[in-house]
Records
---
Amino acid sequence: MELDTLKDLYVDELKDLYSAEKQLVKGLAKMAKAATDPQLKDAFRTHLDETRQHVERLEQICGDLGVSPRGKKCVGMEGLIEEGNELIKDDPDPDVLDAGLISKAQHIEHYEMAGYGTVRTYARQLGFDNHAELLQQTLDDEGKTDHLLTELAEAGINVEAEV
């Protein structure tokens, strides 16, 4: 795909986010299965449901633009998920695993927030206000998940991992 205009870049970034979210659906399922803390398991499962909605929003936006969301592989998300898989394979103490999963998940959330903030800004610039609203909803979901993970870490998971 040639990137000659901001709209071209917007579409390219949407496809990258779509790939990221599709990969994350699988990654979050693994993280939820590996987590030992019940609240952390629930947080991952809840965000998995939200991530499926994020995929649907991206499909809606791409449909509105008349383009397929497929066709690009997000290597950034691939690497972040692989880091989580490596942590799980290392088989650390369960409390340390939970603390590590929070860390890996927050890396993912921050990566997504950067991407969604960018495409939301592009959507506004290009006059796609309805897209910008959908993208902001996803950005809000990502921020809430990040804050929840911080709360879980600080309220006990990191303390348990320290002992």
Note: The two ends are 52 Å apart (CA to CA).
---
Amino acid sequence: MLSLSATFQLPYGIRVAPIFFLRTALPVNLIDGRDLNLDGDAVDIPTKAYAVDTFDASAPTGSQTTFKEIGNCETVNCGRGYYQTQTNLRLSKVFNLGGRMHVEAIGEVFNLFNAINPSGFRARVNIPATGAADPQLLEPTTFSGDFRRPEQRVGQLGLRFTF
């Protein structure tokens, strides 16, 4: 996780505070899709591990994900999803009301650039019936703004009184 933030004092007492977050790709618990050890469960660890290589949300047929092989899969969570980013911006200005009283006007925008941030990746490597590679491997199922994904672009306004 990388987090960068700064505060800039602009003319007329306006303060700008950008914050940028970058989270590296989280692990994905890949499953082979076939019952390799014949124990009745088709959730065995696959031979190879894979990671999302590219994600294109503007593809004509919906989102397009490509993946790459990253070595042998020897433990659970051997796959990798896709990184996530978010840029937040805060603008504020303090107004003097006299004496020690002040009011600060605050405007904030979260996920300023409306990053899509795919997650919830499909983890099945092979189709059980045929043993063929699953064409939906590492396709995302959720995106920013979906239910229980709070990082959609949103703004808020506020006032802070100090005295």
Note: The beta strands are 2-5, 8-9, 14-23, 27-28, 48-56, 64-72, 79-80, 84-98, 101-110, 154-162.
